[in-house]
Specification:
- The chain is mainly beta and 117 residues long.
- It has strands at residues 3-7, 10-12, 18-25, 33-39, 45-52, 57-59, 67-71, 77-82, 91-99, 104-107, 111-115.
- The strands form 2 sheets. Strands 2, 4, 5, 6, 9, 10 and 11 form a 7-stranded mixed beta sheet that branches. Strands 1-3-8-7 form a 4-stranded antiparallel beta sheet, with no helix packed on it.
- The model has no long low-confidence stretch (mean pLDDT 95).
Length: 117
């Protein structure tokens, strides 16, 4: 059974940094791309970043240059390094991938990020 667990969220002042982790288990197949999404307090969900197995990355314009998505060598953990955080980055952050076997978007429960002074 596929499981994704996000961690690393918390409270930080504007300009601060956090590193989110997404630990996966139960995946015995290749995942073409990993994604980070976020959902704000109003319920709006936004795509934030994605990482292809080729190493290519894409970012939402508002986080470009501040966020970095990466993956560990073992492939079980995907990271989102977030620098120069802004209050508008406050949200619950989820990692996700598309499971071609089940034809479902897998995701974890998320981790809360709060940016305020």
């Amino acid at each position: 059974q596929v499981q994704l667990v996000e961690s690393g969220g918390g409270w930080v002042q504007p300009g601060g940094s956090l590193r989110l982790s997404c630990t996966s288990s139960g995946i015995d197949f290749s995942v073409p791309a990993w994604y980070w999404y976020r959902q704000d307090t109003g319920g709006q969900s936004d795509w934030v970043a994605q990482l292809y197995t080729s190493g290519g990355t894409l970012y939402k314009d508002s986080v470009q240059g501040r966020f970095t998505i990466s993956r560990d060598n073992g492939g079980n953990t995907v990271y989102l390094q977030m620098n120069n955080l802004k209050p508008e980055d406050t949200a619950v952050y989820f990692c996700s991938f598309y499971n071609f076997r089940t034809r479902a978007h897998e995701r974890g429960r998320g981790t809360q990020v709060t940016v305020s002074s």
